[in-house]
Design a protein that fits this description.
The structure holds two protein chains of two kinds. By secondary structure, chain A is mainly α. In chain A, about 75% of the residues lie in helices and about 0% in strands. Chain A has a single domain, classed as MetI-like (MetI-like fold, Orthogonal Bundle), CATH 1.10.3720.10. Chain A is globular. Chain A starts with a helix and ends with a helix. The mean pLDDT of chain A is about 80. By secondary structure, chain B is mostly helical. Helices cover about 70% and strands about 0% of the residues of chain B. Classes of the chains: A mainly alpha, B mainly alpha. At the A-B interface, helix 1, helix 5, helix 6, helix 11 and helix 12 of A face helix 1, helix 3, helix 4, helix 5 and helix 7 of B.
């Protein structure tokens, strides 16, 4: 009896999993045909040949290479910026004394909880005011430091033993040297979590890249995908090929760093 | 600090804007007090947006939470390929929302897979596809939201389940407790803080639904999927009524705050949440 129940449960899970993954599989699968396919004409699907032509066409017919470059460039710079600034700020919060430390840290935590929609209008005006609208600066500058990153770094550095830092200080090392040579090498797990978290968030980010840029040249992949319909009537195979390319890095990161992603998301949520 | 420049300053600036008649034609805003807020509540579009957003929140969160809890309980059993299931359920929630919305636009279209499935099962479908009918567009997007987000909350539930001390279950088994008794008196109480957190996070997130609307329906048909953040975008950045849009954003902000506080109160503030 117990065994049957167990098998039923297992089959049930498989079915739910199929339901969960079906849309993604569908995307990759239909991107391999030259025409829009539908399940209504099953016979057609088997008659047609699979092809990678759509992937090639995405690059030749729309400036997808440029979008891809924008996305990668922005995500990488923002990730590096976060690693640098979040370590700096996190270290300061964990080890230094300075005026208003407590209230500053509380404001960091508060920012973590602010619904971001409230920033749409003011950030737009601010970026315009700086003359950064429709430039890389608009895509990068606001996100160079993230409250979650500060939080994670501070938590991690706070529990590290102080002995090494003190030894380095006695040897006459400066603050920056201590941070970069002594503290950060010990923080690799936390840095990995921050990096992946920030990279994924940026890679998938749509709202702000969308409202802070206007020209085709500045579009990141998600923005380009959302505006794809503007190019022509929806051409599903090609659109799915482009979507597939947008999803691929996420899949790869997910395969290799699943543990860090889960850790980042759960600690991020728990700390709130 | 950058953080203050890009986060706290805009926050306050927009509160100020919401009391002005700032538009692009009028770049030197006048202070008009609460006029924007008064106008909002006699604006039928805004009221529709508010209604749709509330429907969306109320219609997705219970389902997402229950599905996440239910599947977390199953995955937490001794089941082969446990990690595989966990990863599979989780995957959609880290995929780009734009991509997901595009896929579902296809699935919901008039010759899309889901429409086809409904035909097979004999369920009547709207003529032009799910997203083009005022009665099915919003529910379709809600269904998609449950699909995309439950995996994330499932992971959170799993983390909470694994934190329950196993000795409690062993002790309960010795004293002959049934499966339901164990669930009712051990599992559920331990999951309370996590449930609060999940509902809270999901409320904050769901009230701000935008990408799905932008990609799939642009608020249509006939405003049946117009949400508050979509109106903020449309009024502020398409019609450039910045002051008015800021007031909208702030109304939503206060609604979210009030809801969050209420939820904390209902579930019992404190203890667990501070973990």
């Amino acid at each position: 009896m117990r065994k049957i129940g167990r098998i039923a449960l297992f089959v049930f899970l498989i079915l739910v999993l199929l339901g969960t993954l079906f849309p993604l599989i569908w995307m990759f699968y239909s991107s391999l045909f030259s025409h829009t396919i539908s399940l209504a004409s099953l016979a057609d699907i088997f008659k047609q040949k699979l092809t990678l032509k759509n992937y090639a066409e995405v690059f030749s017919q729309i400036p997808f290479g440029k979008f891809l470059f924008n996305s990668v460039f922005v995500a990488v710079v923002v990730t590096l910026g976060n690693l640098f600034f979040c370590s700096l700020v996190g270290y300061a919060f964990a080890r230094k004394r300075f005026p208003c430390k407590k209230s500053l840290f509380v404001s960091v935590v508060l920012v973590l909880m602010i619904p971001v929609h409230i920033l749409i209008i003011p950030l737009f005006i601010l970026i315009k005011f700086f003359g950064w609208y429709d430039t890389y600066l608009a895509l990068i500058a606001p996100w160079l430091v993230s409250p979650l990153g500060i939080f994670l770094m501070r938590q991690y550095i706070e529990v590290l033993p102080k002995d090494l830092e003190e030894a380095a200080r006695i040897d006459g090392a400066g603050e920056f040297k201590i941070l970069f040579r002594v503290v950060l090498p010990l923080c690799k797990p936390a840095l990995a979590v921050v990096a992946i978290q920030v990279f994924l968030a940026n890679w998938n980010s749509f709202l702000f890249p969308f409202i802070l840029t206007s020209s085709e040249n500045m579009r990141t992949v998600p923005v380009a995908l959302a505006l794809f319909q503007g190019y022509q009537t929806i051409d599903w195979p090609r659109l799915f090929a482009a979507s597939g390319l947008a999803t691929l890095p996420v899949l790869i990161l997910f395969l290799f760093f699943q543990r860090q992603i889960v850790a980042g998301l759960t600690t991020g949520a728990l700390k709130q | 600090m950058t953080l203050i420049l890009f986060w706290l300053f805009p926050l306050i600036y927009s509160l100020y804007l919401s009391f002005t008649d700032y538009t692009v034609l009028n770049p030197y805003p006048n202070f008009i007090g609460v006029q924007n807020y008064l106008n909002l509540f006699s604006d039928p579009d805004f009221l529709t947006a508010l209604k749709n957003t509330s429907l969306f929140v109320a219609g997705t969160i219970p389902f997402t939470t229950i599905i996440a809890l239910f599947l977390a309980l199953i995955v937490n059993q001794k089941i082969p390929l446990k990690d595989f299931f966990r990863a599979g359920f989780f995957l959609p929630s880290i995929t780009s929302m734009v991509v997901i919305a595009l896929i579902f636009t296809n699935l919901y279209s008039k010759d899309g897979y889901l429409t086809f499935l409904c035909h097979l099962l004999g369920i009547p479908t709207p003529e032009k596809g799910f997203l083009f009918s005022t009665s099915t567009a919003l529910p379709s997007i809600m269904l998609m939201d449950v699909w995309v987000s439950f995996g994330y909350y499932l992971i959170l539930y799993l983390a909470a389940l694994q934190a329950i001390p196993q000795e409690l279950y062993e002790a309960a088994e010795i004293s002959g407790a049934s499966f339901w008794q164990k669930f009712r008196y051990i599992t559920l109480p331990y999951l309370r803080p996590m449930t609060l957190l999940i509902v809270l996070l999901n409320t904050i997130r769901s009230f701000q639904i935008f990408i799905e609307i932008f990609v799939m329906t642009k608020g249509g048909p006939l405003n049946s999927t117009l949400t508050v953040v979509y109106s903020v975008y449309e009024n502020g950045l398409v019609r450039f009524q910045m002051g008015y849009a800021s007031a909208m954003a702030y109304v939503l902000f206060f609604i979210i705050m009030i809801f969050s506080l209420l939820q904390m109160k209902v579930f019992g503030l404190g203890k667990g949440v501070e973990e």
